[in-house]
Amino acid sequence: MPRCETNMDTTETFQKDWALEQEDTLHPPMVTVEIAGKVYQVPAGITLLKALWYTGHEVIRGAGCLGGFCGACATYYRTKDDPKVKTCLACSFAVEDGMAFSFAPPFPARKAIYQISELQDPKQDLFELYPEAPMCRNCNACTEACPQSIDVREGVWRAVFGDFKSVSDMFMNCVMCGLCAPVCIADIAPNLVAIYASRVQGAHFTEKPKDIEARIKAIEEGQYEKDWERILRMSDEELQQATVSCP
Amino acid sequence: MNLRALQDIVHQTREFRCTQTIPKLTVAEREKLIRQYHPDYREQAYQTIRFGPNAGDRTVRELAMLLEGDSPIPADFPLTPDYTVDVLVIGGGGAGCAAALHAHAQGAHVLLATKLRLADSNSIMAQGGMQVAVAPDDSPIQHFLDTLRGGHMKNDHQLLKVMVEEGPLITKWLIELGVLFDRSPDGNLQVKTGGGSSRARLLTCSDYTGLEIMRVLKDEVLNQNIHVLEFAAAVELLSDEEGTCTGAILRDLDNKRFIVVAAKAVILATGGIGRLHIQGFPTSNHYGATGDGLALAYRIGAPLVEIDTFQYHPSGAVYPEQLVGALVTEGIRSEGGHLVNAKGERFVNELDTRDVVSSSIIRECQEGRGVRTASGRVGVWLDTPLLELEHGQGTLDKHFPAMVRQYERFGVDIRKEPVLIYPTLHYQNGGVKIDVNSETPVRNLFVAGEASGGLHGRNRLMGNSLLDLMVFGRRAGLAAAARAKMIAQGKLSLAHLERFRAEARKHGVSNQVISPAILPAYTKTS
Fold first, then answer.
1. Which CATH architecture has domain B3-37+311-425?
2. Which one of the listed residues B14, B313, B338, B496 is annotated catalytic?
3. Mean per-residue pLDDT for A173-194?
4. B139–A202: do the CB atoms touch at under 8 Å?
5. According to DSSP H, which parts of B354-488 are helical?
6. Cβ contacts (< 8 Å) between A242 and chain B: which residues?
7. Which superfamily, per CATH, for B83-309+429-498?
8. Has residue A216 been placed in a domain?
9. CB contact under 8 A, A67 and B327
């Protein structure tokens, strides 16, 4: 049985001090998986991405933040005996016995180009920029394809009906993996519709915070200059103790 | 023993712990703790750099190897440019996008090259928020003082003044682009408290602050039709006879070809170094965080500062195994989550600075008060269920949806179970020396974001990185565009590389290391 090398080599060195000579650590149980059509044995419980490294795959496209935030490792997978192909982020999803998986290829969805500050009627402009958006046929494939469990179909409809506030809330955890786009029979790229609606909500329909304007003005008018002069002349010991009053 | 059984002590001691107040350490106590337990003080992990701008300085072995490493480019490499631009931005994270957008807005012809996809970065993972002094009881000067104390008074005062003063301005820019920061009921920006800060100053987008900012910035870079080259890693800079920077050589990771770019100004926004696994630590960093910019800048003659200090974020996941090294947001501690050792005791003020909290966790574990997992790792508890009890059911789902999801994927319910954490390599406190316009001592070479150094001193405060990226990304973009208007394209040469190689030979250095590393070597070869 091969030794577990799923953790980065260096991590292992570091942890050696603490490592217990446990059977589970040194000889982990192995599972059988199918990666892009080929069968491999990998340690149980590792992530799909680590399974790729473990089986000698050089990963360039397909790894990004490694923390479940960037969507670079969008992956199709199927579990044993289940006909349903599901999606996940390979960096934060564990292998199981009999699983088959492969990276989703980049999908050339069309992104509309717009100048956010120049939009005159952004809710109407949606139909110019993404004329396919209202063509949704309610198949729900996008929602099923979302590894973040966003109700994507509902979000597209809310965008179409101009409820951009809901869209921005619903898509706050969207990692822009784009897995919702290739499944759409109406050729909508829901994640791109959503980022449009969300940005518009922020730029056009959210009250501008007054505190920030006030603070910018205070800085520009030099309200802190006297304090800065005092502070920047101080020694480290004085700075350690220094206090400032707010104008 | 089963981990779930070991958790019981966390539940049993919760009530008592809530009655405790743990004072923050005095300056003297902090220094003592850090010297004894912080990884920055492990003598055997360090070596002296033998040649180059920082000859004689100490740094960790992994970085010294990188800096003394050789270029993949041969001396006789043909330098016919494939692209000729005003400003070349290297890196597609927060600083790179901010720099590209601001340079473009000034009319510069910009090329942005990144070795992964646009926006794949550490920035996108930032959960805790961005520090900006906007609250009525706060001021830029208070922000300055907090940061300085967090950085052990070693921060560059001029850089720091710029960052705290331009925070509100850059926040306004982000809001105008559509970034949805959390608001208080009166419509103003909601502010939260971060470790080491005396005022509530963190702006957040739930625990997706970095994701929200990067989604918007990426979309905006595309809207502005800025030329982006993805999967193109910078492997060498170019210089003219006077030693000023005139461009770069990229490597296309898809077809392995080299791409020569002539640029009047180059902005390095290549981020940090976590994937070199300094001292063998796991890391919270993204796949490409291999410190490429440091090696490139060093070879062309730009000095580095504070490169003997790294930030080990107190809360890296220890369990489940799939999450090892991944970050557990500091927000949990901001909202009152306790750190608890195996005996059920609190042992540090959870909102002390990151270096203090990390050192105290290492102390607990070294002295046998840590909790071991079946795979031999060790950590301490972070009491997440406490937040549900203190602030009401649903708090974790509302404030930390990303973290709930992160653990749920592996069958851990953080609403009911505390999580195990241990410090994880998070941030490079130092980097390439820059001035207030983000320019290095090498003319026409700018550096912004984590790759730069000086601003954060010897320990960065939570929430100051996102702000650093935006403020100095903008400054670098503006300054580079202005420079490009004033000068003609310089000659492309590898004169600096010849000098570097001569130095290496003189010092008998032939460590066979090719740098930059570009990506970590995780692929199992046999």
1. Alpha-Beta Complex (3.90)
2. B313
3. 98
4. no
5. 354-366, 385-391, 395-399, 401-408, 464-486
6. 145
7. FAD/NAD(P)-binding domain (3.50.50.60)
8. no
9. yes
